Amino acid sequence: MASRTVGASGLQVSRLGLGTLTWASTTPTAQARAMVHDFVEAGGTLVDTAPTYGSGEAEELLGKLMHTDLTRDDLVISTKAGFRVEDGTRIIDTSRTALLKDLEGSLRRLRTDHVDLWQVHAWGSAPIEETCEVLDHAVTSGKARYVGVSNFVGWQSATAATWQKAMGSRIPIVSNQVEYSLLARRAEIEVIPAAAFHHMGILAWSALGRGVLAGRYRTDTPRDSRAASQELSWFVEPYLAQKPRAVVDAVAKAGEGLGMTPAQVALCWVRDAPTVASALVGPRHRKQLAELLATADMSLPDEITTALDDITGGPNLARRKPQGQDAGQG
Hints:
This protein is of the alpha/beta class. The protein has eleven helices and twelve strands.
């Protein structure tokens, strides 16, 4: 599997990233373990997690696997901080105290002395200078190799990046992890241009439109699907309306002509979009992952990419820039 640099940094990641959102909930431990093996054997490196995934169990499982099945150097681990759920309420806390507590907890659960990429999970109410100072501390203390942000809109990511550049001696923010797929192209308006301007790479989460672009919901809701689960039905439901269904049908039609599955078409569209360093996917079992790993030597013809752009919101203007101007491609 090919690798890319994240923005203008020296961080190298596989262009397909393995997400762990469903670990310890709808993905059995045995399947998670098998998928990590398959992913690494295929040349994958980037595994994305967070303290909130499975209430910390995803990080714990990943930490265990690095001690029983893999070596630390097999993986590029990205995790996050500043977001938690208490009694069903989502709380964003990007204060120094909360971020450092999350970092220490992640390192303990992952059984490692450092993470490769540490990200602020969401924009919070703490002063941005306080949040950014913690990012500096994480790197200078050796507990993180690189730092990034997650779910920041354009002005938020630009503010954070500018603050880090202002003093000339602060640690640069190398990435912004945001939702990006054929069903979620909002990032193209401000987030991706801001990332390109500030030499940040995009980590595209839910590259398959929360699983909907794989085509499983075209006729009904399978009993074993995310949409049918108590934990994740809220996550999938917004993409089960009539307009997303039309997009899924178009993706499926493109796949039929190319000899690809809908999931493979959707993944290639995101993976090869300007500024994207890695497309993150969250398969729940090995068969789903194998389908996605098979895209290593696949790409979409320009005319198919253009047609999908037109169907889902219009041209991606960044595709028209001269080659080499976009961060995140390596």
